[in-house]
Design goal:
The radius of gyration is 60 Å and the shape is rod-shaped. The chain starts with a helix and ends in a 9-residue tail after the last strand. A hairpin with a 2-residue loop joins strand 11 and strand 12. The protein contains 11 helices and 12 strands. The protein has a 5-stranded antiparallel beta sheet, with helices on both faces. A 5-stranded mixed beta sheet has the order 7-9-10-12-11. A two-stranded antiparallel ribbon has the order 6-8. It folds into 3 domains: 167 residues, Beta-Lactamase (2-Layer Sandwich), CATH 3.30.450.20; 114 residues, Signal transduction histidine kinase, dimerisation/phosphotransfer (DHp) domain (Helix Hairpins, Orthogonal Bundle); 155 residues, 2-Layer Sandwich (Heat Shock Protein 90), CATH 3.30.565.10. The chain has 487 residues and is an alpha+beta fold.
Length: 487
């Protein structure tokens, strides 16, 4: 099976060329033969007319009572005279077809042809013979005097020159036609090659794309439709490559999200299981022992109360984290500095409890679009973490200022440095240093996750740095102009 378009096109051109050549040859040959036939017919009519005139004149001058006998007697003279008049070989036959005389017996040595047979029947006819490169015309017709058939005249004429010229014309036409068609074939093939070359390139590139290789490009510097097609093909491949890259990225993100979700579920299960197990254990022992052991009873009740409070706080934080993820409240213009100062004043008592202090430095008119409740929760979590993880008798520094685009809130505390590999996962729910859950009073590993969700809801960013014995948290939230404040 021929599958290549180049081969199909070449075979198609050859078929068209051969068919056209054969048709042209046929029509040209028909035209030449028709022209030759017209020429021969005119020439033979002239011969017949001249010979009839001569025969009639001869019979008028010498009239005999029996024309057929006279025709036989004067046959040699007729042959000689008509040979000169018509420039053809002449033969005279009787009515029965007997050769009476001939100017060139060699020209009539062959058995008479169809022309002679028609002449015997009283008809005028001619035949053309071709032998080697010699063409001969035999022309015969009955001689009729006063309505009586008295004999037959037959002429032999050499037509080699006429048919030789015709053949030369036919050869020249065919050679020129072959040359024109060959040139046309070459031009068509060159044009076709110019068209199919980009198609072949695009076929190879599309095969590469099917095989999964999208880092391919069609190098075709053309301004026509094929160049535009190649350009569009390259654009299509580029868009496919980008889309596949995006799909792969989304797939990896989904895998990572599923991993985080599983880890979050495992951590939640662990965190909820621990206090529930403790509550159930103490409750079972109190149920068994009753109030017989007052000391154990009081201890168990206190433990159940503490674990219940811890469990309640954890559930509230989980609900808050879920709300931050799935719900976005309406924002309004507000002064973030005032909220931060209020939080620092409220947290100062807790800092004093742990023998620490808070230094709060806030610029005025730190205007943002946001939720006052969520910003307060954000600031409380950040300051509370600084109190928990700072060194004893250290100072926690809280700064708030503005740039041309943002309101910046910074919280600094001195304490144990967080390793860089842990900083990358510090905002994950339930994540702790050293990669495991640590039971700390008031810590569930959800605070920074809630902080990140609040900051992102406010179209801001949050970063944590920890080095040289100091940990800092930097929050940036887009600022607004003072004139936008609602009074």
């Amino acid at each position: 099976m021929i599958q290549s378009i180049k081969v199909k096109f070449l075979i198609g051109l050859l078929v068209i060329f051969v068919a056209s050549l054969l048709l042209l040859h046929h029509f040209v040959l028909q035209i030449i033969e028709s022209s030759n036939e017209t020429t021969i017919t005119q020439d033979l009519n002239s011969i017949k007319k001249n010979s009839n005139v001569y025969v009639r004149q001869t019979f008028m001058i010498n009239h005999y009572s029996h024309d057929e006998i006279y025709f036989e007697q004067m046959s040699k003279e007729l042959v000689a005279d008509l040979n000169k008049i018509t420039s053809s070989s002449v033969a005279v036959y009787s009515v029965d077809g007997e050769l009476l005389a001939a100017s060139d017996k060699g020209a009539f040595k062959n058995p008479p042809g169809d022309d002679f047979k028609h002449a015997l029947k009283g008809e005028t006819a001619y035949t053309i013979t071709h032998q080697d490169k010699i063409s001969s015309i035999y022309f015969a017709y009955p001689v009729v005097i006063d309505g009586d058939k008295i004999g037959i005249l037959r002429f032999a004429k050499d037509a080699s020159l006429l048919y030789g010229h015709s053949q030369q014309i036919l050869n020249v036409i065919m050679y020129v036609t072959i040359a024109i068609f060959a040139l046309g074939l070459l031009l068509c093939f060159a044009l076709f090659w110019n068209i199919t070359l980009p198609i072949v390139k695009m076929t190879k590139v599309s095969t590469e794309v099917i095989g999964g290789n999208l880092n391919v490009h069609i190098a075709l510097n053309r301004k026509d439709e094929l160049g535009k097609l190649a350009h569009n093909f390259n654009q299509m491949i580029e868009k496919i490559r980008l889309q596949i890259g995006k799909i792969e990225k989304d797939r990896d993100q989904l895998k990572e999200l599923n991993r985080h979700r599983k880890q979050f579920y495992d951590n939640v299960t662990h965190e909820l299981k621990t206090p529930l197990t403790s509550i159930m254990g103490y409750a079972q022992m109190i149920k068994e022992n009753g109030q017989s052991d007052e000391v154990f009873f009081e201890k168990g009740i206190d433990h159940i109360a503490d674990e219940s409070a811890r469990l309640h706080e954890m559930v509230l934080q989980l609900l808050e984290l879920s709300k931050e993820t799935d719900f976005k409240s309406a924002f309004e213009s507000m002064e973030a500095g005032a909220i931060l100062e209020s939080v620092c004043e409220g947290m100062a008592f807790k800092a004093q409890k742990y023998k620490k202090s808070i230094l709060c430095e806030v610029e005025g008119h730190l205007m943002i679009e946001g939720s006052a409740t969520k910003l307060r929760q954000l600031f409380i979590n950040l300051v509370d973490n600084a109190i928990k993880y700072s060194d004893t008798s250290s100072e926690i520094i809280v700064n708030a200022a503005q740039t041309s685009e943002f309101v910046q809130i910074s919280v600094f505390n001195q304490g144990e440095v967080i390793p860089p590999e842990h900083l990358e996962r510090i905002f994950e729910p339930f994540f702790r240093e050293h990669g495991y859950l640590v039971k700390e009073i008031g810590s569930r590993g959800l605070g920074l996750s809630i902080c990140k969700a609040i900051v992102e809801e406010h179209q801001g960013t949050i970063q944590i740095r920890s080095e040289n014995g100091e940990t800092s948290v930097l929050v940036q939230i887009p600022r607004i102009e003072t004139k936008q404040v609602n009074v």
